Amino acid sequence: MVDLIQKKRDGEQLTTEEIQFIVEGYTNGTIPDYQVSAWLMAVYFQNMTEKERADLTMAMVASGDQIDLRAIEGVKVDKHSTGGVGDTTTLVLGPLVAAAGVPVAKMSGRGLGHTGGTIDKLEAIEGFHVEITNEQFIELVNKNKIAIIGQSGNLTPADKKLYSLRDVTATVNSIPLIASSIMSKKIAAGADAIVLDVKTGAGAFMKTLEDSRELAKAMVNIGNNVGRKTMAVISDMSQPLGFAIGNALEVKEAIDTLKGEGPEDLTELCLVLGSHMVYAAGKADTLEEARQTLLKLINNGEALAKFKLFIEAQGGDGSVVDHPERLPQAKYQIELPAKNDGWVAEIIADHVGTAAMWLGAGRATKESEIDLAVGMMLNKKIGASVKAGESLATIYSNDKEIEHVKEELYRSIILSEEKVESPRLIHEEITD
Ligand code: URA
Ligand code: CA
Q1: What is the CA(166)–ligand 2 centre distance, in A?
Q2: Which of the ligands is closest to the CA of residue 353?
Q3: pLDDT band, residue 116 (cuts 50/70/90)
């Protein structure tokens, strides 16, 4: 290990076997934290070649379980977002592309954050559950084209261990390490093709377009170098996507979007990502044809019908589709009146997310309980003109005393005296 640290420190390329040695040794405990820390710092400064990145990814994939989706017919396309606030796309995209015939075999987690994960959100629907066997999961995807199951306990243990170590050694922010970390999880989960939604802007992991582009390219290269067709869309996170932030609120927003009545930005992003998924699955000859197919499935009700089928197949109350009032409801709706006239210039997404978490929409620690009913609806997005006293957002709360939440939202939603343009939603698309 000393030799390998030195080799990387001096800017040389490690071989496949050498990378496997490090990842295996760290996972099984024969290489100590302090040596891997030194190696990570060397990677941070010296970077990794394309080949090393692919090798690191596959070594992490090999460190744990790999999900075998071969029993599912068709090209399994997975979507991954680098994380935003109020990102309802997964809830919309699953049923939407499934309606187009793309098999959606989704594995999802709960995790920490501003709101719950996809499974938490879906559990806002009475009866819905993900406690199904692997056999049931595969059967459901073959029958309905869509099912969701909880994450296996032993997916990419090497990534878990390395990520924790990076967290305490100032080596999280390294493109080769981030890209291989994300891609290893997607590949271990069995995807044949991967569509990445790389967020950019104040609320995103990557704040500048330049950094987002570099991360997107790194992931696209890894995917294609290991035989998984991969492409990326760089999308805006200079404000939350859609209007809803919160679990039940986002389920309602997803239903609206599947009906063709959703927010413009969320709808457009779902059409763009969805078109790439349909195209990658070979269900359309061009992206434009894929887009037209998706629009038709929204307009003729098939996308919504697919959502209902999916919910009912996993024990959920499908009637929420027509009766969203059957989703958990918060006791209070509290408006956030604008303090002066102007235009909305910024909505700092991660701060809005923090405010949602304080209401109880997300977990601060693994043990926290989520309140599925709470969150907020943004009434004004960037570029909107506002009069003093008009509501910027509606807060859904089970607690009346929420001054701290309101203050955080006032700090997050910044007004300008001059007119502001709304930001561009899709910045770039990166393919092989
Ligand atoms: N998300 C991941 O999964 N891994 C990283 O390294 C960073 C963000
Ligand atoms: Ca949203």
Answers
A1: 30
A2: 2
A3: confident
Integer Cα distance of 311 and 309 in angstroms:
6
Q: Which helix (H) or strand (E) holds 81?
A: strand 77-81
Say how many Å lie between the CA of residue 60 and the centre of ligand 1.
Answer: 13
Alpha-carbon gap, residue 350 to 407, rounded angstroms: 14
How confident is the model at residue 20, as a pLDDT?
98
Give the angle 90-148-269 at the CA atoms, nearest 5°: 10
Q: For residues 161 and 64, is the Cβ–Cβ distance under 8 A?
A: no
Relative orientation angle of helices 33-46 and 2-9, to the nearest 10 degrees: 20
Segment 192-245, tens digit of pLDDT: 999 999 999 987 888 899 999 999 999 999 999 999 999 999 999 999 999 999
- Tokens matching residue 25: 């040794």
Specify whether 159 is catalytic: yes
Q: Which helix (H) or strand (E) holds 41?
A: helix 33-46
Query: Would residue 181 show up in a list of annotated catalytic residues for this protein?
Result: yes
- Model's pTM, two decimal places? 0.95
What residue has token string 């492409």? Answer: 231
Task: Measure 374 CA to ligand 1 centroid, in angstroms.
Answer: 27
Chain-centroid distance, C-alpha 361: 16
Q: Residue 370 — φ and ψ, nearest 5°?
A: -95, 140
- The answer to whether the CB of 156 is under 6 A from ligand 1 is no
Q: Is the pLDDT of residue 110 over 80?
A: no
pLDDT band at 367 (very low <50, low <70, confident <90, very high): confident
Active site residue 185: yes
- Catalytic residue, from 80, 106, 186, 381: name it: 80
Comparing 1-10, 21-30, 31-40, 145-154, which segment has the lowest mean pLDDT? 145-154
Q: Give the torsion sign (CA, 307, 271, 428, 220).
A: positive
| pLDDT at residue 318 is higher than 80 | yes
Which residues have CB less than 5 Å away from ligand 2 (the ion)?
A: 86, 88, 242, 244
Q: What's the average model confidence in pLDDT over 165-188?
A: 96
* Sequence letter at residue 420: V
What is the number of the ligand 1 atom nearest to the C-alpha of 185? 3
Ligand 1 pocket check for 218: Cβ under 6 Å: no
Evaluate: CB of 160 within 6 angstroms of ligand 1.
Answer: no
CA atoms within 13 A on the CB side of 366: 1
- CA geometry: angle 340, 343, 348, nearest 5 deg: 95
Strand, coil or helix: what is 161? helix
Q: Find out whether the beta carbon of 206 lies less than 6 Å from any atom of ligand 1.
A: no
pLDDT digits over 139-161, tens only?
999 999 999 998 877 999 999 99
